[in-house]
Amino acid sequence: MWSKFLLLFTAFLAQSGAFDWHIPKPFPRPAVPADNPMNPAKVELGRYLFYDKRMSSNGKTSCATCHRQELAFTDGRDQAEGTTGELHPRSSMSLANVGYSPLLTWVNPSLSSLEEQARIPMFGSEPIELGLNGYEDRFLGDIGRDAVYQKLFPEAFPGENPVYTIGNVTKALAAFERTIISVNSPYDRYRYGNDRNAISDAAKRGEVLFFSGERTGCFQCHGSWNFNGALRYEGGPLPHVIFQNTGLYNLRGELSYPAPNTGLYQYTNRRKDVGKFRAPTLRNIAVTAPYMHDGSIATLAVVIDHYAAGGRTISSGPYAGIGHDNPNKALNLRGFKLTDVEKSDLIAFLESLTDTEFLKNPSLADPWRR
Amino acid sequence: MRKTVLRLIFLLLILLSALAAVARQASPSISVSGDVKQQLTLTAADLAAMPRAKAVTDNNGVQTTYEGVWLSDVLKKAGVPLGPGLRGPALAGYVLGSASDGYQVVFSIGELDPDMTDSQYLLADTANGKPLFGENGAFRLVIPKDKRGARSVRLLSRIEVVQLRK
User: Fold this and answer.
1) Is A237 on the interface with B (CB under 8 A)?
2) Nearest residue on chain A to B156, judged by CA atoms?
3) Which domain holds residue A53?
4) ipTM of the complex model
5) Is there a domain that residue A64 lies in?
6) Are strands B156-163 and B29-34 parallel, antiparallel or unpaired?
7) Which residues have CB under 8 Å from A360's CB, separation 6+?
8) What is the pTM of this model?
9) A211, A218, A241, best to mutate vs chain B, most B CBs in 10 Å
């Protein structure tokens, strides 16, 4: 009786203890679902799982294969590659500040839970990412025999039996992902930290251009302190997320974007949603090339050219078309003119969003390498 | 000797007034012009001498306390009729806020009058106790009750009052 009470009391303390986020002012904490409260053991467990190749059917890949810390948790590829070699149609999104994102992935309008999202790379078959479908028992058996997990699972989920479950795996992964926080770039120190010398004069000029509705209007889609639009945070409202067509393609025929990357249309089947994607964060953007949902632009300079032209023109080949004229293109993407100096200023500003401490933060690094 | 001292004092006064003019020119300022009784050129020092006001904004969980003066007080200082004086043809007037990058937003005079609406229009010069800088410019409009920030003109440099019926 008493031992059961003590166990439950320990569980209560572990679950309800205030989690120390180490988030500097003035940034808020991410929103955390009531059924998956944060605790240090759960975050540490999630980190081990994130970097564990036993998470894949053939032991070749883990979450970290497509989400490398030094690349702001992207993979440097135009299309992510699954554990069996199958290519994902889209580019890996950065996980920087993913805990603040009201929606997840490039286009899914209803996927808002990190716990639910984790199941897609684990068990999805279109495409196969980790390919764990059908290998659940083997995977859970493997981790149940590992001394690291034998310590961490009960600490993360005290009192639970069974504790080695897929549900707990996804909860731990989500808890770790909520700690992937990047708010200490030179720009943050300039804008929020009172260090007026933290960024170059070029970056300062670039900031003005970025936030000028008259000149570039970049912030209109990449707004908020996370540069990706409205955020979800502790105590905040659930925001409305906007999907935009940026005129990247304008194919002839029924659909103006190349399948299967037809954007929000993939989920709504409405023609007006063809080519609409969610704006990604621009934090650490200088290390997350190639760009756009399909990695079809190699450099920031060319991304700026695309937006300056109000859409991309592809003159030949299967994707030929004038993106500027895409009927679904966002109305605010009118294009703009920049001098060469202004363009390099804008790039300097984007480069000032690189949080090098985040890219090397040991608490986010591969724990198996210790 | 006395003549020389007087000449020196005279030269010193000219020099000081020239320096003050240069300093005033170098300080960022906002012009208030158009259909006003008194055209104004306001610096941060001028705004500091007016009744101060605050507005708090929330950008996705990051709160900022802006301080400055109510736009209505600026208009009153320029002689624009507000309150009981804002009636009849005067209501067919508007205020054009312009930024140094060319951005412009129009407000009707009626909506800026605190006697008419509960909206708040702050001509801000500090954020969290520090002078505005960078993307905000030295001055910006802050309209905390707006659902979107598009009318909160950054880099504010000019306020023009236009009366359509004179």
Assistant:
1) no
2) A212
3) 2-182
4) 0.90
5) yes
6) parallel
7) A69, A70
8) 0.91
9) A211
Q: How many domains does chain A divide into?
A: 2
The answer to whether residue A198 sits within a structural domain is yes
Residue of A180, A228, A230, A227 lying closest to A353 (CA atoms): A227
CATH number (domain holding residue A232): 1.10.760.10
Work out the burial of residue B139: count CB atoms within 10 Å of its CB; fewer than 13 is exposed, 13-18 middle, 19 or more buried.
buried
Q: Do A194 and B155 make contact, defined as CB atoms within 8 angstroms? A: no
For residue B152, what is the nearest residue in chain A, using CA coordinates? A213
**Is A136 in the same domain as A172?**
yes
Q: Are residues A32 and A174 in the same domain?
A: yes
**Among A191, A214, A231, beta carbon nearest to B61:** A231
CA distance, residue A304 to nearest chain B CA (Å): 19
Q: Based on the domain organization, do A269 and A291 belong to the same domain?
A: yes
In whole angstroms, give the CA distance from residue A311 to residue A321: 10
- Is the CB of A213 less than 8 angstroms away from the CB of B134? no
Q: pLDDT tens, position by position, for chain A (370 residues)?
A: 444 544 444 444 444 457 999 999 999 999 999 999 999 999 999 999 999 999 999 999 999 999 999 999 999 999 999 999 999 999 999 999 999 999 999 999 999 999 999 999 999 999 999 999 999 999 999 999 999 999 999 999 999 999 999 999 999 999 999 999 999 999 999 999 989 999 999 999 999 999 999 999 999 999 999 999 999 999 999 999 999 999 999 999 889 999 999 999 999 999 999 999 999 999 999 999 999 999 999 999 999 999 999 999 999 999 999 999 999 999 999 999 999 999 999 999 999 999 999 999 999 999 999 7
Question: Do A207 and A155 sit in the same domain of this protein?
Answer: no
